[in-house]
Amino acid sequence: MAGLGPFGRAPALAIGVSGGPHSLALAVLAAEWAAGPGGRVLALVADHGLRAGSRAEAEGVVARLASLGIPARLLALRLPAGGGLHERARAARLAALAAAAEEAGAPWLLLGHHRADQAETLVFRALRGSGEAGLAGMAMARPEGGVLVLRPLLGVCPDRIEAFLAARGLVPVRDPSNEDPRFVRARLRRVLGAPGGPEVAALAEAAGAFALRRDRMRHAVAERLAAAACFEDAGWIRPDRAALGTDQVAHAALSALLRSLGGRRHPPPRAAVGAMLGRGGGSLAGVVWRGAVLCREAARCAPPVPACPGALWDGRWRVVAAPQGGWIGALGPGGPRGTLPAIVAAGLPAIRDAEGRILSVPALDGGARLEFCPVSGPIA
């Protein structure tokens, strides 16, 4: 934890706990660590509902944590049927954990991923055709919503974690789906062999090397964006095409801008980014680049949603305060624009009543308060 701080006095930590060996060990270790500086922990147990008895199992984990003096909260996930169930479950669980941590006032969310998980992730992404950023695997620390996700055990061999539990006399829950060959990750575990074996160690080391390259690219991208992009309060950008350049760093920088402005978690295809960079304009991933303007494409904005405090619209704008009963959606063409370019104004968030009358355009009149929440993700 020392290398992941600073945490200050009385840190508030949330911990994602499945009851399995690694998350259980993390919960015990984190609770003991937080007690030193007078902090607190909250374990978050997600019931994915993917198999019969999962609710009772999750309740049992909550009770087990309570017996160890670790407060815990149960989160119920409701996943619709469909393909990619395991991957969707992972994403839904992370989103629910982050939201619950933020709600509990815990700015750090700890997850129990370890060295073998890192090796598995590298192979899984390689099979999917990920680039260098994806092959860097999971980061020790990264933002998720309003919290910072930390993985303190990422470099630890799972055999050491099992030994720690045995020494404490703690018996974890074993999820049978982790060994179900119907799932890709379960099949990968069989191929990779023993979690403490040389194959896993080599793959984890490779992920670390890719992570170093990713970090260097991130620094280069940050420097390039500081020189080539002027970020405006209304959630749009003034790009300097000459300063942006056309090299690999420019590709990664433009990709990051498109993801943030378009509210998308994953970057657009590299070839499409390169084509847009070469043209110095165009439309891609819900973003339009025209001259000295890079902004959200109004026609691609999400449908209106109730403008309740905390609501996230279009993957980018979080409502802080708005007129009661209002709906938030795109302003659209022909609305008020102030001194903004028309193409920017059309994609601005606007608050309307049930009849469609404009109650506020926060960027222009301050009648409501919104936070711009750009999407974060890997540099690609």
TrEMBL record:
EC id: 6.3.4.19
Highest rank taxon of the organism: Bacteria
Database matches in SUPFAM superfamilies: Adenine nucleotide alpha hydrolases-like
Main location: cytoplasm
UniProt cross-references to InterPro entries, sorted A to Z: Rossmann-like_a/b/a_fold (IPR014729), TilS/TtcA_N (IPR011063), tRNA_Ile_lys_synt (IPR012094), tRNA_Ile_lys_synt_N (IPR012795)
GO molecular function, one term: tRNA(Ile)-lysidine synthase activity
Catalytic activity: cytidine(34) in tRNA(Ile2) + L-lysine + ATP = lysidine(34) in tRNA(Ile2) + AMP + diphosphate + H(+)
NCBIfam families registered for this protein in UniProt: lysidine_TilS_N
Protein name per the record: tRNA(Ile)-lysidine synthase
Biological source species: Pararoseomonas baculiformis
